[in-house]
Structures are given as structure tokens and as C-alpha cells.
Amino acid sequence: MFRRRRSADDFAEEIKSHLELEADQLQSEGLSEDEAHRRARVEFGNVQTTYERFYLRCRVVWFDNLLRDINFAIRQLVRNPGFAVVAILVLALGIGASVAIFAFVDAALLEPLPYAHPSRLMSVSESNVESPRWPLSYPDFLDWQAQNKSFTSLDVYSWSGFLLRSGSGAEPVQAMRVSGGFFQTLGVHPMLGRDFNPGEDRLGGPNVVILSYGAWLHRFGSRSDVIGQTVDLDNQAYTIIGVMPRSFSFAPGGNAEFWTPINVLSPHEHSRTFYNFLGIGRLRDGITPQSAQSEMTGIAKQLQRQYGIIGHDLSANVGPLSEMIVGDVRPILLTLLGGAGLLLLIACVNVGSLVLVRSENRRREIAVRGALGATPARLVKQFVTEGLLLAAFGSGAGIIVAAALMRLLARLIPKDMASNMPFLDGVGLNSHTVAFAAAVAMLAALLLTITPVLRLSFQRVRDGLSYGDRAAASQVWRRLGANLVVIELAIAVVLLAGAGLLGRSFYRLLHVPLGFEPSHLVAVDVAVPHTAYETSAQIIELYREAVRRATSLPGVESAGITSKLPAQCDCNTDGIRIVGRPYHGEHNEVDERHISANYLPTLKATLIRGRLFTEADDPARPGVALINQTLARKYFPGQDPIGQSIANDEGGRPSVWQIVGVVDDVREGSLDADIAPTEYFPMNQIGEHSFALVVRTSQGGSTLLPELVSTLHQINSNLGVSNEVTMIEKIDATQVALLHRFSAWLVGGFAAMALILAIVGLYGVIAYSVSRRTREIGVRMALGAQRSSVYRLVMQQAGWLTAAGLTIGLICSVGTSMLIRSLLFRVQAWDAVTLVSVSLVLGLASMAAIFLPARRAASVNPVEALRAE
Q: Whole-angstrom Cα distance, residue 287 to residue 45?
């Protein structure tokens, strides 16, 4: 095998010597020299057959042919660099995009959570008509934990925060409060130190804390002796007992750096009707989520009857923890995967068109090879080898593109959003993504091989030999090429329609009525140390001082304080009842906000009637409240709410509040949520140790933020100031805005690439058709056809293809848009503006693509065309 040339030469020399000896022998018997050589060859037999038998001896024929086919395929690609580069780049683009998006889908939806036996982990919460996932109260949790038989362990967690004091001052940090068995339920253990001991989560337990890996790395320099040291949180010493491993993450915890046991409860948290905790449980073997939910629902109903809880129809919600973590992201990821799949399909179709064009140009070659004895199977093997080689090069380049796209997309996800997506750490080239890439490559190879093979099955040797470069375009090409272009155009319409709908949704989301003017507004969050401000009077004085100093800054028009910035979430809710009306346990849930006197004027919110708060509304006066129009319409239909009172439970604070004004709806919840009924209480009557300072400036506010932070630290260096941002940036950074922006941009990118590929495909079909019809066009013009008629001839062919692609695509786009309707905001799946815009864009792009071939056809010189043909 490794001395093939020398062995063949030796064998040829041996046959030649044998024939010479035989001819000499015949000459000695009296034959002439020519006759002796002829008789020697006749007696020996077919020399070429002998050579072939010797060559095939001890050889693997199929492997030998494969090497020849690969060598020939490489030579073909080298001879046609334009075709090779375009085909490989288009395949790389389609494969890279689909593999990159699949990597995110795999990490989020297919890979199990990084916990022990994650399929047994359940999200456990209460449920009612207002929300299918309603938080637990702490007393309910204790009863659920004691009475259930479905879980081996049941724990709860709640968000929290501290003021971390260090040598450089105080800094707000995120934290999570968890019950003692939280980490055991997840099946994770600290890499340093220990977990919480039994009893440390009981009321009055010791102040202990477990660090996240990030906190240990950045705040404690990765010191191994950190265990046993103390850290100052809210002016209390907490002993560090453990450090979680780097791989640990818990999506609901976000960027939590400190984990503390639940051993201190606020006055509200002692109440059975104050819902502030979410649960996780580990199912016992043999227990299904359905049976666990049935048991927990029974416990919830029994507790509701036992304690006479009214206003709620409580039930239970038990579902996989993974669903709770990735539930909001699932439809977006599946939509992006579908878009990437369509882009891959259009890329393969485009390359298939290129391969079909090449097969048309190789008709004479195929015919000659067939005439010389090549069997159809042998020709098919050659085309299969070429398709596999092209798919291999495209797939290799696609893997490189996919790796780059993964890194790019990971960087595009904002840090705050990424903290709720722990699966991002698992995005990369793993066994799943490599297997997916291999499957995609095989599908691409199948398309690239079947296209010329089908063409080969329609070709006759005689037609190929008489074809030449002067024949008219084949009917097979015109059928297959046109159909492929229609498919490309239809897919492009689907992607363009999806991108248009998502883009319109995002535009409407960002332009939804807010009820205030967000431009020229800046805000900072402030955490107040309890030890420095112990009384309500001290806190109220801090409010006033912060507003006074902020207002005195150059370029500041006004300033105000709120307990929660607008356009963020419908959280911090309150259950109210109307004083003077019969109460039958109705649950009247409203958003609750605490604001300073000049907060609403700073927002430029509109007062409908009544009055706003003043500095005189302090703890010495009766409680007063403002309500928004939605609350007024819902609870005071056809009435004037001014002067009426609402009641609630404020943990010892005044529980009756007189309504003194109605303001226009300010969007307190997320951008895609309906306006919720909202009540506003004066900050001066409810002192809180955390607030947001909102400042309106006369010009761009981002330059003011450093000075604003410095001013607050001048009041007290121990104030925890964080999240300084303009209001527009704050709104743009909300999760709902980020998810809509991310999906719109990515699907829009897929649509743009699909449009380009489809237009290139259309251009290729028309240009090739024109080039094959040069003789026909020349004859038409020689017989008197005008240039305008040639334009019409070409444009008519392209018009039919475009119309067919548009029609099919519009029908399919309405269907596919129904699948993404959960991502749409105030836009219908059959939005006429979007569909008409897509039709215009694709129509204009198609006309632009076919202008050059039409112009070339109309410029044909009849004499030169006939002579060339």
C-alpha cells in the first residue's frame, strides 16, 4: 500500500519483458516482427485489465475511491474560490447562530440545576386568585413544615439587605435570609467552614453569616482564615461560619453576598397574614408534585379555617424549581431558537441553490464521465463526498462563529439581569452543543448532497453531451431554483414579521404612558443606619435635610423622596378596607408608597382634585393619604373619595387614613403590567430606614450623580448610597424592558441576515436565468423586441417568485406570530402595519436585487449574443 507507484512500475516492466520474450520466440519460429508482437499481445490477453487486477490486489477499493473523491472535491473548491468562500461563510453563519442559541437553551432548559437530584426540588408557595405564586407567611411555613408528609425537607427564603461597615464607610449589600436547612435541601455545602447548625435559625439565635464566593473573593481577599472572623452588618457583629463554593448560585437570590438565618422577625412577619417568604422543598421518593400539591392545598385550607383568615381563598402551588427559575426566559429562548433554526434553513437553502447552479454548469462533465463508463452510483458518491466536505468546512467555521456569538451574547446581557440567570455559567461548547452541531452539520450535508443527486437523476447522457455553454436554461433548474428561492423568501418574511412585531412591542413598551416625565430625573437609593437614626423624628429630619441639600445643588429644580421608585414592580402592597362600609373579608390589594411632600411635583405628576401632602403632615397630625385614579374608580365608583377614609394595618402606626387628594395614574408597576390601585402615605408620618431620593435637573442629570452622592455622604458618612442612575436608564434596565429589547434585537438580526440571503438567492436565480437565456433574448431583440419588453420579461419572472414567497410567508408569519404572542405587548399577531411594512421592504429589496440582471438583459447586443451562442 505504501509502495504503490514502485510496485505498479515493476509489474508493468515485467509484463513488457514477458511480451518481448514471447515476441522473440514467435519471430524465431518464422513470423515477422509486427505479427510476432500482435500474436504475443493476443495470447496474453487484455493488458489494461491485468494492470487493474494487480492494482486492486490487496487494496480497499472504497477507501481508495474516497481518497480520490476527496482530492477531486478539494481541487473543485480551489478552482472555484468564490463559490467555496460564499458557501462556507453562509453555512458558518447559519450553523453558528443556531448552535450559539441552542447553547443558551441547553443551559437554561435542558441542563439540570446544579443541585443534588434537582428533579426532586420543588418551588413551594401559597396561591390565590390574585397570583398563582403567592408568598408564605412565617407562621404558615412553620405549620406547613411540621404537618406535611410529602417533603423530606421544607425551607423558606426571603430577600434582605444590610449596611456593611468597613474602614472606607458604609455600603449597602444584598443578602438573603434563609431557614436553617436551606442549603441541605438544595444539596450544597460550603467549601470553607460549615453550614447553619440546628437552632441557629430560631428566634433570638446567634448572628452568623455564610459568604458567597464573590463576597469572599472581593471583600475578604480569598483568605482561608476568614472563618470565625466578624463582619459589621447594620452595626451588629456577625460571625462568618462558611463560604459557598464558586459554582453555587441561586437565581432568586440575585447578587446576594451574605446568607443569614431567619432568627429575627419584624412585627409584620409575626402575623399569619403577612406574606414575605418563598419556599423550596425536596420531594420524598415516590411522591409526585401533584400529590404534594394536593396535600399542601389541604393544609392551607385547614389553616385558613383554623385561624379564621378572611379575604384570601388560599391554596398551594408546588412545581419544579427549574420552572420558577427559567419560567420568564423560556418563551424568549424558544423564540430565538426558532429564529436561529429558520436562519439555518435559509442558509442551507441558499447554499443548496449555489450547489444546484454548479451542478448545472457541470452537466457536460457529468455526461462525459458517464459516457466513459462511470456508473450513477459512482457519480453519486462523488457528489456526496463534495457535499460532506463542504458541510464539514462550513460546520468547522460555524463552531468558531458560535463560540464568538456565545461570548458576545453573554456580554450583552446586563449584570443585574445575568444575576437572575445562573445557567449562563453553563453556556459553552459541551457534549450537548457539540452533538447538536453535528446533527445540524449532517442535515446541511444531506441538503447539499441531495440537491445535485436529484439533478443527476433527471439528466440523460445525450442531453449532457449536447448541452455545452450555448444551451437554454434547463427546465429542472428553473423549477428547483425557483422553488428554493420561494422558500427563502417565505422564511425571510416570517423572520421579518416576527422582528417587526417584537420591535413594535418594544417601542410601545418604552412609550407606554408613565404618568410622569422621566427625562431630567435622577435617583439614588439610600439605606439609613439604625443606630444613628433610632427615632422617627431623627429619620424625618434626615429626609428634610437630604431634600434641602439636594435642592440647593446647581442645576436642580426640585427633589423628593419615595419608598419605591416608579415603573419597577407592583410590590410593597397593602390590604385596605373602606371605613364606613360593611366588610365581609374582601381582599382589597393595592400598591403602597410612602412619599415626601414634593415627590409628586418632582415627577411632574398631575393632581386631579384635592391637595398634595405638605410638610405639616407629620406624626402629630391625623393620617392622610393620596390615591390614584385607578383606586378611585375601583373603590369609589361614582363617588367623591375626598374626605373618605381607608383603613389598614401598619404595625402600630395610624391605621386610618383620610383621603385628601386624587392624582393621575403613575405607573408604579412594570411597563407591561396594568396600572394597579395605589395609595400614597406621607413619609413624615411613616419613618423608614431606606428610601430613594429623586431629583429633577434643568439639564442632563448623569453629570450630577457624583455630586449628589457626595452631598448625601456629607450629611452622614455612614449612609448607604447606591444605584445612582438616571430615571430613563432605570426604566430601560428593568427586566421586562431588557427581555423585550434582547429578543427584538436578536430576532431582528436574524431577520436582517435572512433578508440579505433571500435577496442574494433571488438575484442568483434571476442572474443565472438571464445568462442561460442570452440567445433567446438576442433573438427577441433581433426580431424587434424593445428594451422595455426585456425588462418586463425579467421583472415578471422575479415578480412571480416574490409574490409567491410573500404570500406563503405572510400566511406562515401569522401562524408563527401566534406562538410568540406571550412576548407581544399591545400588538396583535396579525398587525396590519407590520405585515404591510414587511411586504414593502421585501418587495423593494427584491426589485433592487433584480434590477442589475434586468439591466444586463436589456443591454444585450443581438449580434454578439447570437455569435457567442
A: 82
